[in-house]
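Per reviewer request, we include the raw input and output of the structure prediction for the construct analysed in the revised manuscript.
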Amino acid sequence: MELLSKSVRASQTEQINIVMSGHINGAGRLFGGVLVEWIDVVAAVAARRHSGHDVTTAAIDNLQFKSAAFSGDTVILSARLTYAGRTSMEVRVDTYVESFARCAPPHQYGIPRHGGSGRARKPYPGSALTTGNPGRAAGMAGRRAPEGA
């Protein structure tokens, strides 16, 4: 079966949240679990946009908390596909914090991997991933797109 081809840009997703008092832990910082929830949601939206199907998180390969977010900060999550196979996808989520009180560099990121599963919980064929570069797109089936693609 021939896979449809979609560009990375077609499923790119951005989510913006303001850290509120209900998101704060006892140390006055954003709960890590709240950030993981936000990452999971934005990754799922990107994966659904690409596949056109419901998705399930299979794993988070890497998540590093490099800096804290505090009440009133703005958290920006940017998701894009880095790999699309026949029955699974990989989505990279970069997370940034904007603060009026300080200038913070980008700090937290994770890569949730979403596997395709419809209502019957059976794998379904996905869509191929294109990078926007026709010369590279031909050989990309089954391989991860390089960083910055």
